[in-house]
Amino acid sequence: MSEPARPVPAVLTEDRVRELLPLPAAIEATREALIAQAAGRVTQPGPWHLEIPEARGEVHIKGAYVHGTGYYAAKLATGFYGNTAKGLPVSSGLSVVADAATGFPVVIALDGGYLTDARTAAAGALATDALARPDAEVVALIGPGIIGELTLAALPVLRRPSELRIYGPTGSRARAAAERLAASHGWTATVAPDARRAVEGAHIVITATPTRAPHLDGAWLAPGAHVTALGADMAGKRELLHSVLERADVIAADDVTQSRAVGELQYAPDLPAVALGDVLASRVPGRTDPAQITVADLTGLGAEDAAVAARIAAAVL
């Protein structure tokens, strides 16, 4: 007797993935993943990272199963920072989605890193909305790369700030990002000459750089400011000087244990922190006073990767 035929996974191009997962859908899926993670309803291995120093390359492999869903997923995402000089995108990657009942792969998403970028931007927007003052109007973006710009594109799904300041070491790139975001969202957008002048007086600060040299000083933050830090996702990476965390009244992490290992909290492991998913689910308070300084330390979760990948699988199967 012949063995039953194995299912053949659907192969999706990056363009198709982008159609299936616009930013509002990414925000919804990422919110569910963060809440499930904080509640202990996720099975996932620890993140696996590989560095390729000669190419200024990073390889990230993550995956998870969010309990009660029909799929689990694994993804490979890369950031090769020398690609810009070669005229190539910095990010790439793919995701594999499998049936949680049979284990068979059902979707291979050749997403070019979009799923990682979208869930990172979604988490950044969710954290900012959950912790920033309700009347926040002025946003500073440090690092106008793919992640930074996409996070600013996601934020208007939840918030409507009016003024944007951008700083990046490459002025032409910062100006191009400012023009695109202003045209898309009607913001007043300016390019700051340095990080300090972008941040001083801002209500919301978003940092999205893969640096190991911290560049945001707590002394620059106005009372009531919120910081969303997206760049630290490996041991040794760091965007925030210790003064930022020292001034914070509330620190929320996508996963507190992971943040203490690879996020900003690896440099301040004894400071108290709460799970962002618990704040989103109203299980613990976030900001309780307009004058508080709040920080979100986001390292990227396999649960988020699984949630956005499952969303596209459900849409095509």
TrEMBL record:
SUPFAM superfamilies: NAD(P)-binding Rossmann-fold domains (SSF51735). It holds the Pfam family OCD_Mu_crystall. Gene3D superfamilies: NAD(P)-binding Rossmann-like Domain, ornithine cyclodeaminase, domain 1. Signal peptide: none annotated. This is Ornithine cyclodeaminase. It comes from Actinomadura gamaensis.
